[in-house]
Q: What sequence folds into this?
């Protein structure tokens, strides 16, 4: 057929009409609409029966009560538990993100044995039987060879049944090396031991205090039990203006706490003890102290004579002679006028409270600084008083039968500890978690096998290079971690514990609480992977070793251990999820178990412990600067770690939700920012967002620069909690681990890590 | 307006929030609780805040003064659920949406977002003066196994749509269902609370019916010194703030650095 113009038009019109009236275009449009909204890859969360279950969060020592919302057998939300004594419904960002830790790819899904080089992250899956056999064989061999004392164990806490099982295991096995990770609580316990003769943790009655003087404590940055302290902060901010409590923050950086404080004093870092003593000077000089307490219940305030008739200096003479506002002003950089005013306001307040423990309290800190702050509390007589500071015991539980040691265990346990704690040099210190790498690297200390539970020493211990070197000298590292944390990543064997939402365990009183409360972790979800309860695994290992080691564990399983330990409290614990002890801090007349039976400004317990104290001043809280490492000429600046509540920096790696909430001036891509004052930046020709190399005597790293008016000139602030190698690329490889730039400066008395900063240099680099 | 819409529809609510900025510590629990509650996606690198997905975002602002007079404050910012004033000042996002994907519900005062209607033109994002709306530039991806924590109450979104804070509308639905089952018509104050309100450890957020004198928010919103963000724009937002710091209150209406008073984003 010939196609002329006319037939073409007719054909076209016909085709047009045909298509229009056919269902085709409509069908196609409809399909397109459906197709563009067809996202089969978008998950459709399955429906199910909704239930709720209570438990306790163990992601930090805060121990908040949590309620999980479940849909079917899945946990879909973690919320703060209403009515729980610690947090009453509130939750912190880390606690709320716990789901990501439960279901995330960083879980260790079965026992793993290292196959590649250490730290290469290459593991093979092995059976539980093989994994346990391997530990039994290794530990058994060491014991036979008489090397039992070369086994060490690092745990996150030392209270609670599971850490106690580890301690018991070592006792029965024959090693003195039970190490718990460090915290400011260690130093405070030490100070309480000296000044009050107490073996207890510190408790702060924050809620009832009316004037809170914080020596660098990141009160709302995750210090103490974070939700509880934030709640206390809200109490301080409630009521009308005259009822509101006053918060004063001493810190070189405008932290959230400093920003929330009524007054922020940026004292020179590391001079907090001098400031506390300067305040004491004003209080003593103006007779603003609690005369009843100081006169009747304290020792060493006035000068005193010992049994030989020798005269010793008291606290009063010391502070009056050495810490005048003018002298302290020179040290701290605060004006003498401010010091006098602060001291007067503090002493005249209704219920003043001085709190101590820098940042989140993850580093032990200086003993004398802690004692100086505690002495301030004593001066105003708030020891064991409402709104004050008290010693706080644990909820009493049933004691376990005495460990029967065979001769190997006896010999092993009598050997000196690898970290030097309890030695002649540090007779009063329980453990020195930051010190063992040095002992191994420099002083010929040996660890043949290291067991790690709920701790990440490879990441959290200062001076990462030294830690890695020490790890290299430990032939056998076993991690019991639920997550592929940095220590697990560098371990030889991983025997994964159930995650905290999957297991039963007791949780000791949250740090800083004034009342003993014992919480219960409950298995709110069935184990997601081939994991086992660490308590059961440890007992299986003990039974494998046999002899008295096996006999030390007469229980069938961990559940029996827990039930027996709780005794008559188990019923309440199981039902309510916690037990509280009825505890009231003792009155002043009965509160102090020191050699003098009084509160000791002058710690004579040093003599009792056989420590050689040469100068009178060394018995008293005084300012003994902890010098940051490095020489000023090479390293003109000072690096201080910055602890953020949105960035976990302990044995838990930051979950993605929390990392997402970091400010754009804290993390960019995989690079972290250091914070410097614009003045400092001008001195070193640094500008906002620019790359720089930060260098300290311990290491270096590439960072971005953020200019902030909130930090003291000369100080560099660096977020703590990044620079992981473990976990997954949601965390690993982001930023630099500030611990790798820091070194350990030991407290001369306690031997604990007193580091607060390190000298550093910041050099600009072009991209 | 409202009266006409609601004729014969029974009781109406006007849900809103009062945030005490003195109690807000910037901890971020509200953001995380919101992400967990509402199946909000996340990515390996979420540091570009222009494209990362927040329904509740806590902004950090500074007073711009030199050390040591510098000060910072945090401002939690959910969707403001703007009411507008009649037809001339309608809810900014609602008035521009060509797809009827977002609407102001006069029964609850909640601005909805219907993901399956949204075709991603992002007019609403341009219209929203609070940056409360976010666009899904990528398909949400959960690492293997992590979809297990997703809640069936909130549908996960897909690439190409806009999303925003719903005042946890699914919680209201849940409360309504419960009330219905118990043959009640009214929802109690405690029965419907947003995830951020519940999570806030400092109790800085109060949520409830702004029109109900028995609800805490009603009194709080009328307290002296209460303000809203960018009030001058006439959006009539339903999220109120209080603070004792003058510079923070000033910043609420002039948040761009050069606009005045030296207030800058931190």
A:
């Amino acid at each position: 057929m010939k196609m002329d113009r006319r037939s073409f038009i007719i054909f076209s019109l016909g085709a047009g009409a045909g298509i229009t009236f056919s269902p085709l275009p409509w069908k196609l449009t409809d399909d397109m609409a459906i197709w563009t909204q067809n996202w089969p890859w978008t998950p459709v969360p399955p429906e199910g029966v909704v239930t709720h279950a209570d438990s306790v969060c163990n992601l930090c020592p805060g121990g908040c009560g949590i309620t999980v919302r479940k849909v079917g057998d899945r946990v879909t939300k973690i919320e703060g538990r209403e009515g729980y004594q610690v947090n009453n419904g509130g939750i912190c960002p880390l606690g709320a993100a716990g789901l990501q830790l439960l279901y995330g790819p960083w879980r260790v899904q079965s026992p793993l044995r290292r196959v590649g080089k250490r730290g290469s992250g290459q593991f093979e899956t092995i059976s539980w039987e093989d994994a346990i056999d391997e530990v039994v064989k290794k530990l058994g061999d060491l014991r036979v060879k008489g090397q039992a004392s070369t086994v060490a164990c690092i745990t996150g806490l030392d209270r609670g049944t599971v850490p106690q099982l580890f301690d018991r295991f070592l006792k029965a096995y024959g090693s003195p090396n039970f190490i718990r990770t460090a915290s400011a609580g260690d130093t405070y316990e030490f100070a309480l031991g000296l000044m009050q003769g107490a073996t207890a943790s510190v408790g702060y009655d924050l809620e009832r205090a009316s004037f809170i003087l914080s020596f660098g404590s990141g009160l709302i940055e995750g210090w103490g039990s974070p939700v509880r302290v934030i709640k206390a902060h809200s109490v301080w901010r409630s009521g009308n203006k005259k009822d509101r409590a006053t918060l004063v923050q001493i810190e070189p950086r405008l932290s959230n706490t400093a920003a929330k404080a009524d007054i922020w004093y940026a004292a020179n870092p590391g001079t907090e003890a001098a400031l506390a003593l300067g305040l004491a000077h004003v209080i003593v000089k103006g007779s603003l102290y609690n005369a009843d307490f100081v006169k009747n219940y304290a020792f060493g305030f006035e000068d005193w004579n010992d049994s030989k008739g020798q005269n010793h200096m008291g606290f009063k003479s010391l502070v009056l002679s050495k810490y005048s506002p003018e002298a302290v002003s020179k040290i701290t950089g605060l004006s003498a006028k401010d010091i006098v005013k602060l001291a007067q306001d503090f002493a005249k307040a209704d219920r003043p409270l001085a709190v101590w423990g820098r940042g989140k309290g993850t580093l032990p800190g200086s003993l004398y600084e802690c004692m100086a702050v505690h002495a301030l509390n004593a001066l105003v007589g708030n020891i064991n008083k409402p709104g004050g500071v008290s010693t706080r015991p644990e909820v009493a539980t049933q004691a376990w039968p005495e460990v029967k040691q065979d001769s190997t265990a006896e010999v092993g346990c009598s050997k000196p500890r690898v970290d030097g704690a309890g030695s002649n040099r540090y007779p009063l210190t329980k453990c020195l978690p930051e010190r063992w790498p040095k002992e191994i690297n420099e002083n010929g200390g040996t660890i043949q096998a290291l067991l790690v539970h709920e701790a990440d020493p490879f990441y959290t211990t200062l001076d990462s290079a030294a830690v890695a070197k020490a790890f290299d000298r430990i032939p056998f590292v076993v991690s019991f971690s639920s997550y592929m944390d940095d220590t697990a990543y560098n371990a030889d064997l991983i025997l994964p514990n159930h995650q905290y939402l999957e297991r039963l365990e007791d949780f000791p009183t949250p740090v800083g609480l004034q009342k003993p409360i014992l919480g219960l972790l409950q298995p709110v979800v069935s184990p997601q992977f081939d994991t086992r309860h660490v308590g059961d695994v440890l007992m299986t290992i003990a039974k494998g070793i046999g002899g008295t080691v096996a006999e030390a564990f007469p229980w069938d399983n961990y559940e029996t251990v827990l039930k027996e330990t709780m005794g008559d409290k188990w019923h309440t614990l199981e039902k309510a999820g916690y037990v509280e002890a009825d505890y009231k801090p003792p009155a002043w007349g009965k509160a102090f178990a020191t050699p003098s039976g009084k509160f000791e400004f002058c710690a004579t317990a040093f003599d009792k412990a056989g420590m050689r104290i040469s100068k009178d001043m060394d018995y008293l809280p005084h300012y003994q600067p902890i010098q940051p490492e490095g020489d000023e000429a090479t390293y003109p600046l000072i690096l201080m770690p910055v602890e953020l509540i949105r960035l976990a920096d302990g044995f838990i790696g930051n979950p993605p939700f929390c990392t997402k909430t970091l400010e754009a001036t804290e993390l960019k891509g995989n690079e972290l920012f250091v914070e410097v004052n614009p003045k400092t930046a001008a001195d070193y020709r640094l500008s906002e967002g620019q790359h720089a190399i930060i260098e300290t005597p311990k290491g270096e790293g590439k960072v971005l620069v953020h200019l902030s008016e909130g930090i003291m000139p000369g100080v560099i602030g660096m977020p703590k909690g990044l620079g992981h190698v473990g976990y997954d690329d949601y965390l690993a490889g982001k930023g630099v681990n500030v611990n790798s730039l820091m070194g350990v400066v030991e407290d001369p008395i306690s031997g604990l890590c007193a580091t607060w900063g390190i000298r550093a240099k910041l050099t600009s680099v072009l991209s | 307006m409202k009266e006409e819409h609601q004729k014969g529809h029974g009781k109406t609510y006007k849900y809103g929030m009062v945030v005490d900025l003195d109690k807000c510590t910037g901890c971020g629990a509200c953001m995380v609780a919101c992400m967990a509650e509402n199946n909000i996606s996340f990515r390996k690198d979420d540091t570009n805040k222009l494209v990362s997905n927040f329904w509740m975002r806590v902004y950090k602002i500074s007073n711009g003064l030199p050390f040591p007079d510098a000060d910072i404050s945090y401002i939690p910012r959910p969707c403001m659920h703007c009411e507008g004033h009649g037809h001339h000042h309608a809810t900014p996002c609602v008035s521009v949406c060509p797809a009827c994907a977002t609407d102001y519900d006069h029964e609850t005062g909640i601005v909805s977002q219907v993901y399956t209607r949204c075709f991603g033109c992002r007019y609403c994002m341009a219209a929203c003066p609070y940056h409360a709306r976010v666009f899904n530039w990528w398909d949400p991806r959960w690492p293997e196994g992590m979809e297990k924590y997703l809640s069936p109450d909130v549908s996960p979104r897909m690439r190409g749509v806009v999303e925003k804070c719903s005042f946890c509308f699914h919680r209201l639905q849940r409360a309504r269902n419960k009330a219905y089952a118990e043959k009640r018509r009214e929802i109690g104050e405690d029965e419907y609370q947003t995830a951020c309100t519940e999570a806030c450890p400092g109790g800085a957020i109060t949520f409830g019916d702004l029109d109900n004198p028995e609800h805490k928010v009603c009194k709080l919103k009328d307290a002296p010194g209460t303000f809203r963000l960018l009030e001058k724009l006439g959006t009539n937002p339903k999220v109120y703030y209080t603070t004792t710091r003058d510079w923070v209150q000033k910043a609420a209406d002039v948040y761009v650095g050069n606009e005045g008073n030296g207030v800058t984003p931190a």
Remarks:
- The radius of gyration of chain A is 30 Å.
- Residues 5-21 of chain A form the longest helix (17 residues).
- The longest strand of chain A covers residues 699-707.
